[in-house]
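Figure 2 data, in text form.
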Amino acid sequence: MADIYPADPDFPDAYPTAATDAARDIADVPAVEIITTVALHLMTASAVACGLGEGGEDEADLAEARILINALAALVVGAAPDLGTFHAGPLRDGLKTVQLAFREASAFPDPPGKGPGERFTGPVN
């Protein structure tokens, strides 16, 4: 609609744009749902970068996986108190899974406590 109708400074809401529609839609989504959705995207991308996707080791990129796992760990650990155990528990389990997958995929595993995300989670075994 914004492309069809010019903005009217006297009536800014007369013709909603896609951005205002999206802002209204996202305002209705609970924070827990947004956080878990972002975490699942990071977890999925991490798993693929560790070579766990359909493409297997051909898609593995451990440098990218490290970045993604660090971001995932920061999000999960930082948001856990607000998420509660119902939501945080499965996210922690998924995080640990991709951390272990990274260690297994690495030709030269990091020392305990130095792997991706471990500055937030502590050593993962």
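Caption note: Helices lie at 18-27, 31-49, 62-105, 118-121.
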